[in-house]
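Lay summary

Proteins are chains of building blocks that fold into shapes. Our project writes down both the chain and a compact code for its shape. Here are two examples, one after the other.
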Amino acid sequence: MYDQFYGFTGRPFQLTPDPTFYFESGTHRKAMSYLGYGLAQGEGFIVITGDVGAGKTTLVGHLMNTIDPSRLTAVKLVSTQVEGDDLLRLVAEQFGIEWEGQSKAELLRTIEQYLRDQARAGRRTLLIVDEGQNLAISALEELRMLSNFQLGGHSLLQIFLLGQPEFRQTLFHSPTLEQLRQRVIATHHLDPMEPEEVEPYILHRLGKVGWTGNPSFAPEAFELIFDYSGGVPRKLNVLVSRLLLFGAVEELHRISAQHVRNVIAEIESDRGIDETSLAPMPVEEVVAHAATAAAPGSEAPLQWPAPAADTDVLELGSETAVAAPAAPPAADEAQLAELRGQIESLEARLVEQDAALRRVLDLLIEWVERDPDNAPNPATSQVWAA
């Protein structure tokens, strides 16, 4: 929707990795250098790790776009939690090798013959294994065995391993993977982007879809975007995509720091909503629930005002005195005041979200009226009417 409002030719911040939008940050430049070095060596393992959304898949996709397919056969395997034998079948399938009915020994010979045929045809073979943290130790050992295939003293297969940070722990600290570690010729961890890279990153992706300055961004907006996303590309994409949607709904042509704060508040509010029930709990029920909630550090729930039957009895020598009911602790009153403030904030956010949804609906109706072909089909008309 926002791409139409701003006249973009596409959506620059989609979550699906797209090498077209590759941005060479400092950490990605280093990773590309290691990958290029590995390709020049033509052997061994190259290991690239990074947090979720760091851009590992986009990085490798960009690399593949720069390679001549007539000289290099590259296949990619997204691993799951499989053992060694299953991994061999997945590799064979990616190479286009029929594996059904073959024993492990026969399958290994078939894969080796395929690699030899590729080498004789003047093509090198590269296997890219993504989500390496899911691989079992036995699967990693099978990859090592595949890397042993040679022809004329040259390796027949090179392997790139991509994974999340925990994969480094498995790879470099498992005592059973010493032989594989000796075949790792380069490794790099993708760090988040630096604060000064966020603005060029955003403008780079916008430029890929025909952005001409609408919307513009206040410098403080980029600072808040970095603070919230931590420089992680996927988190940043989520935030800026929501920000552009907000801008389209509000018909903004300049994104300010306050607009970023508003969108961040919406995202956080969305995460805090109980999806099983969108209706907020009545204030009276929340207060009543809070009155019986356990105080911090206590086992039993608070009971105040105390019921008459629970009146404290103090024995003073031979005399018995009835103590007056204890007053509610000041800390509990403060908790209730805080709860009331949170409830009021939540109600205000719900009102804001309702208004935003109504604005979106108005824009959609206006869009449909401009072009009748966009009208929803009868099966969904009741949803729009609602």
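And here is the second example, written the same way.
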Amino acid sequence: MLDLETLDFTKGNGLVTIVTQDEVTGSVLMVAHADREALERTIATGEMHYRSRSRGLWHKGATSGAVQRVVSLTADCDADAVLARVRPAGPACHTGNATCFGAGASDVLGAVDATIAARAAEDSVLAKVPAAEVESVAPSYTQRLLRDRNLRLKKIGEEGSELVAACADGDTARATEEVADLIYHTLVALRAVGGSLDDVRRVLDTRRS
């Protein structure tokens, strides 16, 4: 864990800049400040604490539940900023966005997976609505896949075969399109069995390590 004695608090009048990053997705969640006390509390509790000029010592998620569990704390080369890699329990931003930099800060795969998750959640709500009312609501393509096991497995096979053909032909543009289609369909299939893109990221991160 971070050695506070190595940090230079003098440059920021007792504060250092904290760049908080999602440990799984790599997205920058927020930028804030911390003093020695805030970092001591962070290290002691394993959850992020900050120092705000208006709020004072601030335990992220203390009231909302969206705490940030610390994975690592790393000082930069000048020792006046810290990269905090965390596992967030909820949105980082008070607006409800995952990051304080808006939806555009999220990676495109994460956005696709989030949309699939939203469609799945909508389906769960619709399942509680009387059948006569549901018939008037046309399902999205993602919801059709989530509802039909055979359809989604068939599409994975089709997209995989088309990718193989494109690669065999050396067609870069078509192969790229087929990879995008295959990723989408596999994410839907994964969501249908209770998995998510973050689960895949964790597996890949473990293998990389």
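What can we say about the second shape? The mean pLDDT is 89.
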